[in-house]
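Q: I'm writing a short explainer about Cytochrome P450 for a general audience and would like to include a description of its predicted shape. Could you first generate the structure from this sequence?
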Amino acid sequence: MTRSETEQLPRFPFEADAALAPPAEWAEFRDRCPVGRVRLASGDEAALITRYQDVRSVLSDPRFTRPTPADDAARVADTESGGVFNSEMAEVLPQHGPAHLHWRRTIGKWFTAKRMNALRPGIAAMAGQLVDEMVAGGAPGDLKAGLAFPLPVWVICDMLGVPDTDRDRFAVWSDVMLSMTRYTQAEFDDAQAEFGRYLRGHLAAKRAEPGEDLLSALIAETGPDGEPWSDAMLSATGIGLLIAGHETTANMIAKMVAMLLADRSRWEQLLADPALVRTAVEEALRLDANAGVGMQRYLTEDYEVEGTVLPSGTTAMCSMAAANRDERAFTDPAEMDLRRSPNPHLAFGAGAHACLGQPLARTELQVTLEVLLRKLPTLTLAVPESGLRRIEGLAVGGLQELPVRW
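A: Of course. Here's the predicted structure. Afterward I'll give you a sentence or two in plain language.
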């Protein structure tokens, strides 16, 4: 396509009329154009896939992976605001093959169900403390700033053995690295360099005095070739876990609570039957209308989707959030059914690149909801649903704040 033709394509991610509402284009693309063409924030063209089975198939196909620097892939963001998509981290971490599998297995040992169950009491205690501090500050309060953000930061910092008192620094660096349109390349370079120096300092300290944390364990690890992990790999892994371990979950906690309070009969249903917490969390994940950009896949050979042959070299954007509302996969997909089971949503992706931290995210979401129901049964939104404001310009979706009363 010519540049002018690309510029006429709809821009992705799409905008929505309200913070908790899905963009109208999701349904339009699923119904009429399940393999559509869109323009990314960079100006590059990509194929957008929106139906559940198609998204699941592409994400699960072992032939296709995230774009690597060697691929002529569409850029999610341009070079002036490249964010994590153009970062050193994206180049250092293995994206496919035995090296990627080894990396996942090594990290995955820290996210087992047994480990997550062991973390639950500590997470509940910290969530309770944060709720008490928010209440002491008086209503209305910002549940995102008071609970949703600091809780997952504390958890991932504890796992990595870094001080959560640095959480404000993580927030700044993470926002810059997750930006698609909000920061310049110079600002991104500065944030990446500062984050890297910070992690290398902690790695040096862990080498001198190893602890019982994830970073200390990784220093002692070896790769498939029997060699220790490089400093670049250790630093990139630490940065990736710090960003992914707090940013997405912090935003999801706030969005989940907002969804449940937007129609307070949902909150009342949970108060009447707290056993619904697990299925309610899964339904909030499925129904997230503000999920961000989705997942990229670079097609290394021709691939047919819905009768359309996508040629080798195509960058496919898989919208898990759009797929999670596909009526071909879910009954009454626009409805929030707190009892929905089974619920095979794609919020965490699928295949070899499915979210490694999903056991931790689920644990944090469940524990947070349990604590809120127990300690703040009268919780309500302090603004109309229409007054909730989305975060714009980041690769992950979220709310700017969540004003609540109790």
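A: For your explainer, you could say: The chain has one domain: 3-405.
Q: Perfect, that's easy to follow.
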